[in-house]
Amino acid sequence: MKCDVRTLEESLAGLDRQHLRRRLSTVEAFPEKDNRVEVIVDGRRLLDFCSNDYLGLARHPRIASAMSEAAAQYGAGSGASHLITGHGIEHARLEEELAAYTGRESALLFSTGYMANLAVVTSLAGRGDLVLLDRLDHASLIDAAQLSGARFKRYAHNDTDAVSHVLSQETSERTTLIVTDGVFSMDGDIAPLPALASISRERKAWLIVDDAHGLGVLGHSGRGSLEHFGLSADDVPVLIGTFGKAFGSFGAFVAGSARLIEWLIQKARPYIYTTALPQPVAAATREALRLAQAEPWRRERVLELTSRFRKAALELELPLTASETPIQPLIVGSVEVALQAQNTLAKAGFRVSAIRPPTVPAGSARLRITLSAAHTETQVDSLLDVLSRIRNALPPVA
Q1: Ordered alpha helix ranges (H), 104-245
Q2: Taking a C-beta distance cutoff of 8 angstroms, is the pair 32, 38 a contact?
Q3: DSSP class of 69
Q4: Distance separating alpha carbons of residues 371 and 381, to the nearest angstrom
Q5: Which residues are annotated as catalytic?
Q6: Is residue 339, in this structure, part of any structural domain at all?
Q7: Which domain holds residue 269?
Q8: Band of residue 82 on the pLDDT scale cut at 50, 70, 90
Q9: What is the CATH number of the domain that holds 323?
Q10: Do residues 278 and 361 both lie within one domain?
Q11: What are the CA-CA distances from residue 375 to residues 223, 232, 303, 349 (Å)?
């Protein structure tokens, strides 16, 4: 596409006509210190049902204090990349604690989950190798596969037979990566990890799981999708996680064998060539990790609210996906209907995002509702009451 001003204006106008242009809304304030699910946006006070703050930790005073105290001691910025002078004591301690938390030999910090995904895939696969991706994998994993230079194929969502079929046609001895989300961010369902682990063992492939939305929530102690299925580090040699969801802070990590982490330090361009995460963020994340483990009621609470929401929503015949996680999408299909529903909810005092293509496939626009341990039963029931009133604008359950 020719990138002159006129072409950009025409393209933006085209997005407007399709109701696909994204617009920023600015959070102006958080009303009360102890109220962790309300925000003021564009002068309107809203209950937030679209944040990924599953455990209600993002505004926890202990986490804020940990960040503030570390900033006073270490400063606001790290000053350089990890390999120059940016790797501080808070980074080192957090990496050790993450390795223990995930049951791995080592862990490595990244500034974002996007960068962690790029680092892993582009460091392990290259020209002539094969990367297999679930069709609903996060955009960062798709970009990583493209940037790696490897051949890549996308299989039908959660279709392990398709994975086996593709690999059965392969005769090359080159590296193969099977890459999947643990919990899919737009649908809320969980990947069939036991079957993928079995296939990867049989085919001597790397199984890579991005568990951004599973860690802290799934498993009997909140250690994510792998614990949910009883899988070990041998089953899933590469685990990617983020801190901006259940742990309420910012950043990401890769956990695996000491050899894997050493390889990433040597070869992962998103690690080598970027400024390190500020130490105050690492300190805040360490406190979040402690809270998540010391207060299992948070995980139990958000799952109880999820069950409550699903039970009532299904009774109302709302078009839910088959998700047992705090991500509860209502598929409405039409972009226009999704935007209308979002606006109706905002007028009633609820912040819920309409998710449209290309984030989701065409014809599957949705309201992405997320639950938090900080929500109350009354707030969940109030949301359901508004959803019941706009039910007639939604398509019938498939």
Answers
A1: 113-124, 139-148, 160-168, 193-203, 225-229
A2: yes
A3: H
A4: 12
A5: 185, 213, 245
A6: yes
A7: 61-294
A8: very high
A9: 3.90.1150.10
A10: no
A11: 22, 33, 11, 14
